User: Fold this.
Amino acid sequence: MNAISEHERLTHAMTTSHAPTLSNAHLDALEEETIFILREVAAVFERPTLLFSGGKDSLVLLKCAEKAFGSGRLPYPLLMIDTGHNFPEVTDFRDFRAKELNAELIVRNVEDSMARGTVRLAHPGESRNVHQSVTLLEAIEEFRFDALIGGARRDEEKARAKERIFSHRDSFGQWQPKAQRPELWTLFNTRLQPGEHFRVFPISNWTELDVWQYIERENIALPSIYYTHERQVVDRKGLLVPVTELTPPREGETVQTRQVRFRTVGDITCTCPVESTAATAADIVIETLAADVSERGATRMDDKTSEASMEKRKKDGYF
Assistant:
């Protein structure tokens, strides 16, 4: 029998009406690891919080937290740093999900940092995305958080691939790539000096495909913009830039109405959809199998410039 690739096997299983059920063993292992880490954070740290944007990765993390502690029994609050330029479908879903779980939701706004003068834009149209670091560090100081749980994954971007699951941050909130602590046999060094904290990434070892397979398996509800919908866009340097008040078309650009979905969501000023007719999680699993560009590489305008590189932002305190 000729060997077939994993891509061919999964695609066949997803598209054939009488296809055999795929093994969930790898999803079970990833879920088990994530639940272990979530419980470890609750046991070790005094003032942890879970970063929750209402995006797909944070919703997967929240689902695992429900399994770890029970519905409505999260041992730490949810924290959102809002640029004021987020997609309303996502922030509305964030509020709905937090209320559904009876979880404490803390929202801190970049606009408040701007009013205090701790964030200053170079010009009114500048993206606020990179400035979230300042507001985040202010929230850490305000609530004295010692661990922040986030939904970043190693497959998203090369700087994130360097990061440990328990990522130490110094008293300035900075990440030092060459001073990371070893993580052998799931043993984590969580010792902190005053003013320091950890960023913890329980789904570091998941891939975009794993996330969508888990969403499908667990029937996790998501904001509608993750699925196909009509939207006005302009084609700008290979990206489909959504037409909004914040991102109007430039001179000479042609506005088109396309069937699109968002692979990742963030600040409106730097997040683009991709062309897609995928209406269900199963459809997106098939699309993801064929993708040859990471979700950030295909959709994030701010990752296209060296000045705004992820590694530099993370050293400055970014998520």
Observations:
- The mean pLDDT is 86.
- DSSP finds eleven helices and ten strands in the chain.
